[in-house]
Amino acid sequence: MELIFEISKNGKKAYTLPECDISSDKQIEQKYLRKQDARLVEVSELDVIRHFTALSKMNFSVDSNFYPLGSCTMKYNPKFTEYLASLDGFCMLHPLLPQIKGGEKLSQGALTIIYELEKLLCEITGMDEFTSQPMAGAHGELTGIMIIAHYHKLKGEQRKIVLIPDLGHGTNPASAAIAGYQVRAIPSGKDGLMDMGCLKKELTKDVAAIMLTCPDTLGIFNPKIKEIADLAHKAGALMYYDGANLNAILGKARPGDLGFDVVHLNLHKTFATPHGGGGPGAGPVGVKKELAKYLPIPRIKQDKGELSLDFSMKFSIGNIAPFYGNFLVLVKAYAYIILLGGEGLVEASENAVLNANYIMHKLKDYYDLPFKRACMHECVFSASKQSEKGVHAIDIAKALIDKGIHPPTVYFPLIVKEAMMIEPTETESKQTLDNFISIMIEIAKLADKDPQKFKEFPKTTPVKRLDEVKAAKDLNLSA
Ligand SMILES: *Cc1c(COP(=O)(O)O)cnc(C)c1O
Question: Is the overall model pTM greater than 0.70, yes or no?
């Protein structure tokens, strides 16, 4: 592809600006003016369209390719919710409107969406109150852990430790550490579940919370959650639920009923906001009644059918986001939940779990399965068999790219050697899954017969194998 600078020709234009009616040299002092004209591209509108369309095609997206990236829930999100979020009544609202005199009256629609969404999330998770303000999963974790820290502090306790299984998503220990805690990792046993003996030993009076993902990053639902929660509560610690994997259990189990005190959800994984590339997302946080007074401000209050913002909560952890979070993401989640209803959400989870188990079953004779049990919404294979021939998880990932499929997550979770974590999501058809399965089988056979061939992959991408460490440390986007 030619770069846009290379097709630039003097005099070509992609815009028409209104005539300038002030003289720029009169307004701006000479010393601030550029000595030479800036080197800008001169291209036509069509050149611009082709340039950016070509760039967009160099990338994978759920709209164009199957994207089974484990842990990330890269599912298709209905365009219907995008349409609703783009309505002027939502996207042209000024965030200060509810805070000016008389503005609350004009903001009742938007406040109702946030208020009702928080109520729906309470119902879905079994929690008592929710804040929809955090803007990502990790931001929700930090908010939740700050609430936990506040709770212990106001009880006069100086607990210093947060326990997290070694399977935990990287953001879990990071959030706990940023909130000022020491993190202790609890190892997983041979069955892929948290080592209970080790947990009991670590669960001292110094522990503020246990952070768990359920189902975890192996796609396993820990049957001992209730026992873990009872142990934590007996030791005075709280239970934190990382709900980024909630799309596996919607309508089947509620973290609130399992003994969790604080949860965060990823609306941009489970509830109809596309993600990747950094956002925008939303990581609402739900808490049990005893913790509600610590939620961030403002809270939305209802009085005689009127909604208003309450900034006066004495025990709140304070502000954690400008205004009220990513409002348009909340609009999409609200519309999606209403559209699917209770039964639709259950069906979404059932299909997510069915699809993952289908792939696991069909591929288990070709790739090593470190934990042989029914999975939830994702399954984790190991490329250990293939790596004996010199074909590693990364090579299989590159081969998939050439077949038009986004690779699964590789080398995570860390406790699985040569991990390949596959999350097909509920939105994919049997046809797509069968195509993926046959390609994975083809790749396994090629790894056995001609492992050298993998060095050539990927062949179809604009850049080939990158030095990933150098690419991260010595970023050069213009070469
Ligand atoms: C994605 C994810 C997170 C973090 O969410 P972000 O929105 O990316 O910050 C946390 N935990 C799990 C299990 C996840 O999959």
Answer: yes
- Give the C-alpha separation, 209 to 200, whole Å: 13
How many Å lie between the centroid of ligand 1 and the Cα of residue 29? Answer: 50
> Which residue has a Cα nearest atom 8 of ligand 1?
137
Q: Work out which ligand 1 atom sits closest to the CA atom of 139.
A: 9
Structure tokens at 185: 């990792």
Cβ–Cβ < 8 Å for 260, 241 = yes
CB atoms within 10 A of CB 50: 16
- Ligand 1 centroid – CA 59 distance (Å): 22
pLDDT digits (tens, 9 = 90+) for 171-206: 999 999 999 999 999 999 888 899 999 999 999 999
Mind listing the domains of the chain with CATH numbers? 79-339 (3.40.640.10), 344-473 (3.90.1150.10)
**Nearest partner of 247 among 272, 210, 223, 281, judged by Cα:** 272
Render pLDDT for 389-440 as a digit per residue (tens, 0 to 9). 999 999 999 999 999 999 999 999 989 999 999 999 999 999 999 999 999 9
Average pLDDT of the residues of the chain: 94
From the alpha carbon of 136, which atom of ligand 1 is closest?
A: 7
Residues having CB within 6 Å of any atom of ligand 1: 71, 136-138, 169, 171, 213, 242, 244-245, 266, 281, 283
Q: State the helix-helix crossing angle for 137-154 and 171-178, rounded to 10 degrees.
A: 40
Q: Is the pLDDT of residue 24 over 80?
A: no
Pocket test for ligand 1, best of 69, 71, 218, 263 (most atoms within 8 A of CB): 71
